[in-house]
């Protein structure tokens, strides 16, 4: 039986709708505002960097309908859903975008594309877009806290599922929908949520499109809700609701979603990645980088054994022989053995370490073949992402490194300057002006303070 907190007899969507409709920009915690500005900086920089990749070109070709909405880094505009899809797909494409501790989910690459497209298509005030950005991220992250590991366990991508709902909520907020319209928006959005994780089998591209698809789905759902299209009111807690469909192994407790709305800000708790790969591999790369800093070289390694959380195994460790020899550069992003090898060999794992040539490098593949794991029953995943490597060397010594939390997360955040440097490096990698990261940072901050209609057109030639 679904557990409800003791707020009232209202449905979950009604409680959320009433809060969203009553929220003002002044109600938003400054930490949530700052994290949102960082999210815009990180997301747009990544999306522009991926425009000319093979998957970026494919998305642009598939969704070519012209319009007045900005595709970041591209002079030619698109209609709203196409812009949201392209921006979201490119932003998530390198798996370098922000995430969330508690449920590994990428709100930024769904919420920012959806709200920017809505802002331009519907001529919304910039301040309302800013409010929608925070609302969308808040709802997305809180939904993830309810799901925990269960959505991944069921074979679905949390970013695709919870992201659709967050995008719908954020656009509804920016449109200043009534509580009734917001309830319908959320009810409709759940029927648009989709995204399976079978890409893990062969490193194909569908995970990349999940963020973009969720962004345009949330936008469309909000437009339908605003028009009076009816959606189920028990969309979250119902027998056939969101969690029954996408997290069937749990009885959802909605306290993390509904408690302390407006005082506990999960939008302030997003995490930013220092490495261009899967979230749970990041602390292990930090360990590998420190092994390199201690002077340990690949030829000295006999084997490396990692203590891991059980919930990460099916995505990052198994089948082990496949993860030790990933077939594509994209598959390597979800291979703990390869990312650890990259960290020890290169001292990092940025975009350059995930080219096809880098992934096929014989030294990297030989070292990845020496990396294995054991499940640690005391691992804190998904509440905390940790790393522990035990390296056995050819001279018989054993060296260990530990990373107690996700660097870039709440416990060890990256600064605004570090995120600006990251954006600059990503733009430069794609042949753009790295100095444009400062312009992007200023644009992100201006959204909250502008009295004008939202306009993302300054981003059309970012770094050109």
Automatic annotation (TrEMBL):
UniProt keyword annotation of Transcription regulation present: no
Q: Where is the signal peptide?
A: none
Q: Which residues form the MmgE/PrpD C-terminal domain?
A: 275-432
Q: Which domain of life is it from?
A: Bacteria
Q: Which InterPro entries match?
A: MmgE/PrpD_sf, MmgE/PrpD_sf_1, MmgE/PrpD_sf_2, MmgE_PrpD, MmgE_PrpD_C, MmgE_PrpD_N
Sorted keywords for this record are: Plasmid
- Keyword Protease in record: no
Give this protein's Gene Ontology molecular function annotations. lyase activity
User: Residue limits of the MmgE/PrpD N-terminal domain?
Assistant: 15-249
Tell me which Pfam families the record gives. MmgE_PrpD_C, MmgE_PrpD_N
Record PANTHER family: 2-METHYLCITRATE DEHYDRATASE, 2-METHYLCITRATE DEHYDRATASE-RELATED
Family statement drawn from the similarity comment of this UniProt entry: Belongs to the PrpD family.
Protein name per UniProt: 2-methylcitrate dehydratase
- According to its UniProt entry, this protein's organism is Pacificitalea manganoxidans
The lineage, from the top, is: Bacteria, Pseudomonadati, Pseudomonadota, Alphaproteobacteria, Rhodobacterales
């Amino acid at each position: 039986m679904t557990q409800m907190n003791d707020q009232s007899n209202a449905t979950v969507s009604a409680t959320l709708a009433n809060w969203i409709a009553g929220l003002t920009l002044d109600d938003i915690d400054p930490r949530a505002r700052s994290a949102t500005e960082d999210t815009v900086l990180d997301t747009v920089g990544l999306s522009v960097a991926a425009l000319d990749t093979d998957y970026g070109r494919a998305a642009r070709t598939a969704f070519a309908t012209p319009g007045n909405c900005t595709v970041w880094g591209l002079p030619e505009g698109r209609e709203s859903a196409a812009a949201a899809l392209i921006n979201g797909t490119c932003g998530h494409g390198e798996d370098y975008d922000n995430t969330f501790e508690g449920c590994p989910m990428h709100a930024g690459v769904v919420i920012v594309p959806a709200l920017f497209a809505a802002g331009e298509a519907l001529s919304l005030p910039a301040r309302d877009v800013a409010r929608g950005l925070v609302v969308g991220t808040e709802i997305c992250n809180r939904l993830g806290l309810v799901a925990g590991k269960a959505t991944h366990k069921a074979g679905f991508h949390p970013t695709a599922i919870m992201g659709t709902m967050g995008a719908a909520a954020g656009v509804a907020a920016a449109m200043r929908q009534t509580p009734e319209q917001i309830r319908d928006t959320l009810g409709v959005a759940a029927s648009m949520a989709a995204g399976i994780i079978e890409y893990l089998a062969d490193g194909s591209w569908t995970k990349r499109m999940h963020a973009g698809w969720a962004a345009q789905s949330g936008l469309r759902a909000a437009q339908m809700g605003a028009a009076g299209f009816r959606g189920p009111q028990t969309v979250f807690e119902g027998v056939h609701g969101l969690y029954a469909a996408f997290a069937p192994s749990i009885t959802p407790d909605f306290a993390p979603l509904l408690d302390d709305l407006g005082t506990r800000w999960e939008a302030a708790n997003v995490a930013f990645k220092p490495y261009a790969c899967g979230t749970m591999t990041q602390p292990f790369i930090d360990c590998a980088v420190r092994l390199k800093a201690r002077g340990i070289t690949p030829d000295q390694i006999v084997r490396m054994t990692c203590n891991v959380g059980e919930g990460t195994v099916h995505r990052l460790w198994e089948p082990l022989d496949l993860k030790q020899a990933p077939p594509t550069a994209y598959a390597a992003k979800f291979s703990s053995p390869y990312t650890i090898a990259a960290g020890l060999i290169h001292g990092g794992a940025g975009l350059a370490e995930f080219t096809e040539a880098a992934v096929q490098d014989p030294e990297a593949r030989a070292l990845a073949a020496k990396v294995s794991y054991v499940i640690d029953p005391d691992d804190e995943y998904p509440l905390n992402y940790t790393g522990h490597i035990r390296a056995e060397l050819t001279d018989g010594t054993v060296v260990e490194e530990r990373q107690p939390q996700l660097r870039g997360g709440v416990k060890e955040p990256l600064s605004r300057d570090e995120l600006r440097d990251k954006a600059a490096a990503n733009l430069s990698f794609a042949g753009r002006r790295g100095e444009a990261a400062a312009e992007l940072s200023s644009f992100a901050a201006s959204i909250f303070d502008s009295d004008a209609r939202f306009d993302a057109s300054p981003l059309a030639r970012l770094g050109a």
